[in-house]
């Protein structure tokens, strides 16, 4: 009801603004990094496995896609991520030394549950879930679990569940790294410090809302949009495009920026908004040249640029400046303005933000 919404217009907006608290709650009671965060016996399981297979749907799949970068670079564990409805029906080559990780807000998504059972039937007995509902089928079915504490999410388009899933997946990455001898005590302390500072860092990002609102009117008249990111932020571009199409009904596609020249560049005209996720990371110079390719075709860039990227506003280049680069945890910050953009564009178009047409919060049938 209206009382629950407080100052917010929709549950989605409220849930976007609840993210600092959702993350703080998810980290609450995490004294340090250890396999036991995922349940009894996790140490033995983590010792035994040497691969990770992530299975999920929708936004949860993009959380998994982000985690793949972490698991490979921090924990050094070969990781594949697969859409649950694909995995369950294809012939694949099982490896018993795999940790099967499902990600699900609800813990009841039919395809994800079926994919889990399929993996198990192929002989992969080690299973772990990152899930927001402690009493769900997914938590019951899996050997190990990390229950995020996003609280109840009402908006069909997932927001706080996504960022808390990322936190859970980062903890999993660190715990696996520790067991594999790739995390010193000093590194652990630094990582924990960065995690615990996330709620504050998120507050600073949420304060950018007025700037996002200023873009939304213009944006709401578009019928297409491209989202670009690279590396760790490519899944964030995918998630931004998903949010926009789900609730504003603007057709949106995301591409890894280096792949622009292999197709989507043909779509770029002065009519095409190109949302760019621009963290100040090792790929920045590459990304800048991709932005040039867009500008050369008169595409309109809407850039979320970290401080110190030296990306400045100019005709055709709209810039919202993000706080300092947040290292590996940067995707957790960069997704937030994309959520806000989708939300305010949808509001400008007058759609039913919390209940977009044809979509359900939890898909418990195939
Ligand atoms: C539906 C929801 C999405 C969600 C997806 C997976 O499509 O609308 O927001 O990402 O299901 O749901 P799960 O509960 O498994 O994360």
UniProtKB/TrEMBL annotation:
It is an enzyme of class 2 (transferase). The keyword GTP-binding does not apply. It catalyses: D-fructose 6-phosphate + L-glutamine = D-glucosamine 6-phosphate + L-glutamate. The keyword Kinase does not apply. Its EC number is 2.6.1.16. Signal peptide: none annotated. Keywords: Aminotransferase, Cytoplasm, Glutamine amidotransferase, Repeat, Transferase. It is found in: Cytoplasm. Residues 42-182, 215-356 form the SIS domain. The active site is at 361 (for fru-6p isomerization activity). Catalyzes the first step in hexosamine metabolism, converting fructose-6P into glucosamine-6P using glutamine as a nitrogen source. Homodimer. This is Glutamine--fructose-6-phosphate aminotransferase [isomerizing]. The gene is glmS. The chain holds residues 251 to 616 of 616 of the full protein.
């Amino acid at each position: 009801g209206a009382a629950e919404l407080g100052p917010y217009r929709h549950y989605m907006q409220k849930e976007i603004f609840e993210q600092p608290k959702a993350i703080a709650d998810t980290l609450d009671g995490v004294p340090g990094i250890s396999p036991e965060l995922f349940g009894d016996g996790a140490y033995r399981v983590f010792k035994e496995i040497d691969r990770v297979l992530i299975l999920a749907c929708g936004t949860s799949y993009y959380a998994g896609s982000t985690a793949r970068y972490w698991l490979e670079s921090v924990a050094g564990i070969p990781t594949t991520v697969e859409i649950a409805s694909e995995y369950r029906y294809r012939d694949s080559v099982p490896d018993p030394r795999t940790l099967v990780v499902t990600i699900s807000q609800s813990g009841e998504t039919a395809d994800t549950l079926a994919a889990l059972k399929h993996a198990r039937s192929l002989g992969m007995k080690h299973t772990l879930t990152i899930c927001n509902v402690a009493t769900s089928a997914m938590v019951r079915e899996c050997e190990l679990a990390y229950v995020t504490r996003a609280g109840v999410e009402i908006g069909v388009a997932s927001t706080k569940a996504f960022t808390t899933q990322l936190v859970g997946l980062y903890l999993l990455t660190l715990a696996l790294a520790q067991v594999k001898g790739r995390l010193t005590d000093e590194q652990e302390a630094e990582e924990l410090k960065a995690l615990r500072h996330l709620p504050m860092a998120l507050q600073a990002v949420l304060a950018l809302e007025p700037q996002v609102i200023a873009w939304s009117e213009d944006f709401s008249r578009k019928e297409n949009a491209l989202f670009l990111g690279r590396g760790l932020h490519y899944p964030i571009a995918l998630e931004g495009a998903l949010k926009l199409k789900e609730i504003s009904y603007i057709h949106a596609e995301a591409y890894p920026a280096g792949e622009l020249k292999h197709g989507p560049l043909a779509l770029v005209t002065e009519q095409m908004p190109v949302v760019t996720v621009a963290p100040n990371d090792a790929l920045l110079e590459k990304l800048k040249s991709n932005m040039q390719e867009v500008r050369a075709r008169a595409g309109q860039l809407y850039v979320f640029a970290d401080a110190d990227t030296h990306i400045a506003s100019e005709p055709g280049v709209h810039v919202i400046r993000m706080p300092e680069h947040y290292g590996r945890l940067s995707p957790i910050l960069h997704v937030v303005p994309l959520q806000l953009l989708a939300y305010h564009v949808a509001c400008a178009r007058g759609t039913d933000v919390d209940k977009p047409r044809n979509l359900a919060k939890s898909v418990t049938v195939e």
